[in-house]
Amino acid sequence: MLPTSAIIVLVLSVVLGALYKPLDSNSSFATQKPREWAVTSKNILLVTAHPDDETMFFAPTILALQRKSNMSLYHLCLSNGDAEGLGETRWKELQSSLDILGIPPTRRWLVNHPQLRDNQTASWDADVIAKSLEPYVLDLKIDTILTFDQDGVSSHPNHKSIPEGVKALATRISVTPPRLYTLISVSLPLKYISVLSVPLTKVDIYSSFFTQRLELLVIRVLGTWYPELLKPSIPRNPDANGMPTFISGYEEYLKALQAMKAHKSQLVWFRYLYVAFSRYMWVNSYSQVRYTQ
Asked: Model pTM?
């Protein structure tokens, strides 16, 4: 049996090794139906509620998508975070943060509608959100929207209101609505496992990669005997319908920390604990939300 010290060294080696490089899975948000071509994202709109959301919750996604030359990422913040009278300060901090994360001024906007004020206890009206999103979605030809899920990660009512607003948008516009992907809220213990979330999620991704490739290999081999059944005219995207996941390496994490430092007005003691221990500084996973008719 290995001594305790050897086990500790082994675990640390695995964790540190996992932090070396970023990794993503289905980063194009590919979906595919039988006998149809895969659908992938080209123009993506990240919608957040307040300044600092982009760093505290979505930094792994932003930094990963900036490396994709075939996709354009835009950011829309619905409120200037004026709950404490710091709206102008927080807007300036948001701009500095987005400069660090790599979203240029021509691809980022603040809505700040009077009915979309930062409020810890009130939800936002879905129709107001939909009307605010509509011109950006239409003008930019947005095909994918990323935002919080129905639990809002932190249970903030403003966060939880956004996906309802996107659903309302889908009923307003005459064109095909953008696909909606929401950031998966995890349980409290999983939320604060910090760097341990990286190797655990990478194991999940590599397991999925192996299963997908093995399945394709089996189909290819069997297709030599039953070509009319197992060789479809439309090729299958190996990533299609997989969970979109983005994992930062240590360099990306340090950049996210730098971006968070731009939000000087928000750096109270509990946010230092958050950036040190939160899974969302390292890992983002998404679920597609289907619109109901």
From this structure: 0.90
